[in-house]
Amino acid sequence: xxxxxxxxxxxxxxxxxxxxxxxxxxxxxxxxxxxxxxxxxxxxxxxxxxxxxxxxxxxxxxxxxxxxxxxxxxxxxxxxxxxxxxxxxxxxxxxxxxxxxxxxxxxxxxxxxxxxxxxxxxxxxxxxxxxxxxxxxxxxxxxxxxxxxxxxxxxxxxxxxxxxxxxxxxxxxxxxxxxxxxxxxxxxxxxxxxxxxxxxxxx
Length: 203
Prior knowledge:
Elements: H1 2-5, H2 21-32, E1 43-48, H3 58-75, E2 84-89, E3 99-103, E4 113-117, E5 120-124, E6 129-132, E7 139-140, E8 151-156, E9 159-164, E10 171-173, E11 176-178, E12 183-185, E13 190-193, E14 196-202
Helix pairs in contact: 2-3
């Protein structure tokens, strides 16, 4: 990010700005927004002094969004929409200051994994995705054996984890039954949801 901040940032801040400082502030704001289900805000607005250099470089905004996404997956947080960052310049903001606000914004997320079974392909988009028969689940399996809220899957610290949500017909990973304690699984693992076997594949 050094090249993205050269020149432009020096007009905003009274001293040198470490390339990751803006991302760190965004991640801290996301952390403070977490609720009991580990859902965090995904829309952020950064208010800075007007540098007189025009709008923030678009590549800088894209990089900040990418870093927030990576942090959320690494920490096992759920964002219901893609990370969005806006940088607003305001004359009232003191030189060297940065203010970050956040909120929820809807939006489609790309899949990070799929469950594959014969001709059936079920995308996993959000982290901490709930798998089940209920139409409000994140990954809907329209089979009678599947409980309305059957299991939850997510990534955290580079590891995929799966937990059963008290389903009627159980969940297993590579033939080993699991319960409500998070269990590690890998891409390529066979996940059984009730009597249905799916292969977990990365996107």
